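For concreteness, we quote verbatim a single protein encoded this way:
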Amino acid sequence: MAFIVAFIPTEPESGDTHLYSLIPNYHHNMNWIHLGSASILFISFSILSIFAFTEGSKMETSPGMLHENKIYRFCGLGIVASILVIFVFMKNNRLGEMVPHMTLYMETLALFFFATSWLIKGRGLGDKGKLGRMIYSENY
């Protein structure tokens, strides 16, 4: 899905598709292909955060694991909420005019939520020291 999102762009506001696309003959259905692929990609991210990242810790009930699971679920629901805001703004033109580039803002927020859950799951933020104690509730 990420490759489709990257290589099949949405229609630019200016209408000049040659400036933004590697594809010379832009078709309006490409916009829906891009948006559908992005939706599937973000839904996959939310499923990973909510279900897959919490799976390994269901047997373990330490305070650290329960705290991590809350973070993963919060991030996953944040991704879903971001996608829903995009669709609300797409359906209501007045909202879109009031806040331009809302899709960009919400996609960025959704990626931030997924990156946060990914970094915490992979212990990319470090599991020792003050941050490790705060996130993982572990004593080192």
The two ends are 40 Å apart (CA to CA).
